[in-house]
Amino acid sequence: MGGLIKEEIFTTIKKIRFIVLTALLFIGAAAMLIYTKNGYFNDLTCLFALIKYINNGFNPGMGAILLFSVYRKRYTNASITQAEQHGAKRSTAVIARAAAGSIILAVCYAVFALLLVILCAAFGANFTAAQTGMLLTELLTGCIAAVTLYNGVLFWLYLFAFPAIPMVLYAALFWLPYIIFVESGITDNIFFKVCSFVFPNCGMDVFSASLIYGNPKWIHVLICIAYIVLTMFLTAVVFNLKKFKVKKKKGEEAPEVQAATVSPEDPVKETL
Questions:
Q1: 269 pLDDT above the threshold of 80
Q2: Is residue 96 within 8 Å of 5, Cβ to Cβ?
Q3: 10 Å Cβ neighbour count for 6?
Q4: Measured CA angle at 6 (ends 29, 168), to 5 deg
Q5: What is the pLDDT of residues 117-163, one digit of tens each?
Q6: What pLDDT digit, counting tens, does each position of 234-266 carry?
Q7: Distances from the Cα of 117 to the Cαs of 110, 125, 155, 184, 237, in angstroms?
Q8: Which of 16, 17, 1 is CA-nearest to residue 64?
Q9: Beta-carbon count within 10 A of 8 CB
Q10: What local confidence, expressed as pLDDT, does residue 102 receive?
Q11: What b/e string do you get for 239-255 counting C-beta neighbours within 10 Å, with b at 16 or more?
């Protein structure tokens, strides 16, 4: 499995689309701080602007970029071939690909956290230790939600072998709850509490707040772990049912037709 994970990581991060889109996402944080700096700028406005960018830009964007980068032409066939080349079961290949994506996400969030700390120091935000901790907690819980949602929407990538649906689903599940609940200021009603046990990002918002106030609600982390295990199992089931499709060129007979036209008594045809 280690070989599969390593191959998947380096295959993904070397793609031009991953490098360019991720760089743009990182540059967006600097652009947002420059825009904020031109207005009324202090530690609080900087902190709120960064948190808003994390939730509106980085969280929904990073996973969507990764899904777009993981996709390759003839995705199902490529996935089956990759597993066979490594002598691995399909279920093992599913776990390896999920693990590779999770590692890439974790590293991207860690690099982004370091970038934000450097940018805040460069722009003179003068964060206190508590404010820095709040920002890093926001990124940590966002990373947990990102890994959970990424593993969940991989199911749709195996099901349809097309990246648009998983990308839209990932971005919507991350962005819409933030707009509906957090930016609207209705996180104290019963509907949000119910959603926090259904949607990983809502649960991580609750966990983030509870962590800051020193009373962490670990149930939401356990729910994320349960989601990862369940969706990975469903993905493995779907992938095991997939068949290797042979692409037939124009004017070429299907393999089964060719086999039927070859007579066992004709050595020339058998050779061909």
A1: no
A2: yes
A3: 13
A4: 45
A5: 998 888 888 888 888 888 899 899 999 999 999 998 888 888 777 77
A6: 888 877 777 766 665 555 544 443 433 334 444
A7: 11, 10, 35, 28, 42
A8: 17
A9: 21
A10: 93
A11: beebeeeeeeeeeeeee
Mean pLDDT (the chain) is 81
Looking at residue 236, its amino acid is A
Report the pLDDT value the prediction gives residue 264, as an integer from 0 to 100. Answer: 43
Three-class secondary structure assignment of the chain: CHHHHHHHHHHHHCCHHHHHHHHHHHHHHHHHHHHHHCCCCCHHHHHHHHHHHHHHHHHHHHHHHHHHHHCCCCHHHHHHHHHHHCCCCHHHHHHHHHHHHHHHHHHHHHHHHHHHHHHHHHCCCCCCHHHHHHHHHHHHHHHHHHHHHHHHHHHHHHHHCCCHHHHHHHHHHHHHHHHHHHCCCCCCCHHHHHHCCCCHHHHHHHHHHHHHCCCCCCHHHHHHHHHHHHHHHHHHHHHHHCCCCCCCCCCCCCHHHHHHHCCCCCHHHHHC
Six token digits for residue 101: 């994506």
